[in-house]
């Protein structure tokens, strides 16, 4: 029998529906891989003990003739998405023993589908980071090279999929946290249009930037998951009304490349693989042109003002009283100080400081106000470009997976990881990272990600182009 963990989601669906394989068998195969590798890779913070029972229930539904896209599909869930009754920590000490009191909207949808929740995956604390090294519960290793980071913040879900410890995973993306780990681990990652997937039950980081999305083996698998997850939700007033029409698929596409933006700071080998990707698109009959995005270079600076500003407000709720970890101080205010000081890690505290500063009176206009003006300009620039092109292409990251500790002492070097990904969040548009070639570093073969961005609700464009790339790459 073939190894069922090699199946894509689309293939597994067929095998399940034709009873060639059961959900229990599929789940068992993934659990066997988890038992073999998770102790070292540490993709999961917790593997759910009832995974097999969930699979049995899925098999019963299949036996009754039910068929749904995700029925019986084993998934890995990032540890910032709520599943009622289960621990959810955001990889933070402050929520170490916190149990979710309700289901996230995406969880409800997945439960209706009858998925198998395999476990909750490691991440950077409260999704702040690009390497999963800021987790309060230890690092996650990249299955492609265990001396290197899996990327972040959804590094656990990316490593679970890349390491064949889940058929697919969920992540969240505020500035690249789905796409960057997908790129570094060699899997597909989709950041959907802002508001197309409900944020209800996702721990808030930057509320105007956050979105939940899939990490998968293939582009088609990402489409299946996205189709289930998307939709208006009365629990999240920023979700897009269901009657807004998505952009339809086309025969041929025009893809814009912001050359000037790629001119410096990108690893030469990464750039070479990116060029090969562009050549595939041209060869398949699409038009690749150079474009200018004069303000895109301000995205990273704007992001690292807007995001911490929102972080500082969103994380104010963790006061040691209402949730999780508590440390006694000499009075109530000191309780807060002690609990937050000991409960939050260094990177989270850094961002709370930064955010509080840029929002404080006297600095608000100079920093937050300016960043919001820049955000407007960047969006206008992008929309202008999209009058001429259907999609914009860049590498997902400036370099391949780096080694543990390489960037932890220099926050700016870590933040530069996000240079190509943050623009999509700043603007709200969808973006996809697909594996596109490899580079060699110290005898290891490391995957490279190719990023495509499309206008709002342009996911179909991304899936079409992502498929062309992944199916034609040598
Ligand atoms: N790496 C980025 C950051 O540290 C993005 C995080 C995210 O998307 N959650 O903020």
Provide structural commentary:
The chain has 474 residues and is of the alpha/beta class. 40% of the residues lie in helices and 14% in strands. An eleven-stranded mixed β-sheet has the order 1-3-2-4-6-5-10-11-9-7-8, sandwiched between helices. The longest helix has 24 residues, at 365-388. It starts with 8 loop residues before the first helix and ends with a helix. 55% of the residues are buried. The model has no long low-confidence stretch (mean pLDDT 97). Bound molecules: glutamine (GLN). Glutamine is lined by residues 127-130, 153, 173-177, 205, 307, 418.
Number of strands: 11
Q: Supply Rg.
A: 21 Å
Bin the helical content.
25-40%
Mean pLDDT: 97
Number of helices: 16
Tags for this entry?
474 residues, alpha/beta, eleven-stranded mixed beta sheet, 16 helices, 40% helix, globular, binds glutamine
In short:
By secondary structure, the chain is α/β, with parallel strands linked by helices. It is 40% helix and 14% strand.
List the helices and strands and how they pair.
Elements: H1 9-17, H2 23-41, E1 44-47, H3 51-63, E2 74-78, H4 105-113, E3 116-121, H5 155-162, E4 168-173, H6 179-185, E5 188-191, E6 211-216, H7 219-229, E7 254-257, H8 259-262, H9 268-283, E8 287-290, H10 299-314, H11 332-343, H12 346-359, H13 365-388, E9 391-395, H14 411-416, H15 422-427, E10 431-441, E11 444-453, H16 459-472
Parallel strand pairs: 2-3, 2-4, 7-8, 7-9
Antiparallel strand pairs: 1-3, 4-6, 5-6, 5-10, 9-11, 10-11
Helix pairs in contact: 2-3, 7-16, 10-12, 10-13
The structure holds glutamine.
The site of glutamine (GLN) has 13 residues, from loops.
């Amino acid at each position: 029998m073939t190894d069922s963990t090699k199946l894509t989601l689309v293939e597994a669906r067929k095998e399940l529906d034709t009873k060639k394989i059961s959900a229990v068998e599929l789940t068992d195969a993934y659990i066997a891989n988890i038992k073999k590798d998770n102790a070292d890779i540490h993709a999961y913070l917790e593997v759910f003990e009832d995974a097999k029972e969930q699979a049995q229930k899925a098999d019963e539904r299949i036996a009754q003739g039910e068929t749904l896209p995700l029925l019986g599909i084993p998934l890995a869930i990032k540890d910032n998405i709520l599943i009622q009754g289960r621990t959810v920590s955001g990889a933070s000490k402050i929520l170490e023993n916190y149990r979710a009191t309700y289901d996230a909207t995406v969880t409800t949808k997945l439960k209706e589908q009858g998925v198998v929740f395999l476990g909750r995956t490691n991440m950077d604390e409260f999704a702040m980071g690009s390497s999963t090294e800021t987790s309060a519960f230890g690092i996650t290793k990249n299955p492609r090279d265990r001396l290197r980071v899996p990327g972040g913040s959804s590094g656990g879900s990316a490593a679970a999929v890349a390491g064949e410890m889940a058929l697919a995973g969920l992540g969240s993306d505020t500035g690249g946290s789905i796409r960057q780990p997908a790129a570094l681990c060699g899997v597909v990652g989709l950041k959907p249009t802002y508001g197309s997937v409900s944020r209800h039950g996702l721990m808030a980081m930057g509320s105007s930037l956050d979105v939940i999305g899939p990490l998968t083996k293939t582009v088609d698998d990402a489409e299946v998951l996205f189709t289930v997850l998307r939709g208006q939700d009365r629990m999240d007033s920023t979700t897009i009304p269901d009657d807004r029409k998505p952009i339809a698929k086309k025969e041929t596409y025009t893809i814009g490349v912001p050359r000037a933006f790629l001119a410096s700071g990108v690893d030469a080998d990464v750039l070479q693989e990116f060029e090969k990707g562009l050549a595939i698109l041209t060869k398949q009959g699409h038009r690749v042109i150079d474009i200018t995005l004069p303000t895109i270079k301000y995205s990273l600076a704007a992001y690292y003002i807007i995001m911490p500003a929102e972080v500082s407000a969103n994380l104010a709720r963790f006061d040691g009283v209402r949730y999780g970890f508590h440390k006694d101080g000499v009075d109530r205010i000191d309780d807060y100080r002690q609990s937050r000081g000991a409960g939050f890690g260094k990177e989270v505290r850094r961002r709370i400081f930064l955010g509080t500063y840029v929002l404080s009176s006297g600095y608000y206009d100079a920093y937050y106000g300016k960043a919001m003006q820049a955000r407007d300009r960047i969006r206008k620039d992008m929309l202008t470009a999209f009058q001429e092109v259907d999609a914009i292409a860049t590498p997902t990251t400036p370099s391949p997976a780096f080694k543990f500790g390489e960037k932890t002492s220099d926050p700016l070097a870590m933040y530069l990881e996000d240079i190509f990904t943050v623009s999509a969040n700043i603007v709200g548009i969808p973006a996809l990272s697909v594996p596109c070639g490899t580079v060699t570093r110290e005898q290891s073969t490391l995957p490279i990600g190719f990023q495509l961005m499309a206008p709002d609700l342009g996911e179909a464009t991304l899936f079409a182009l992502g498929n062309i790339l992944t199916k034609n790459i040598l």
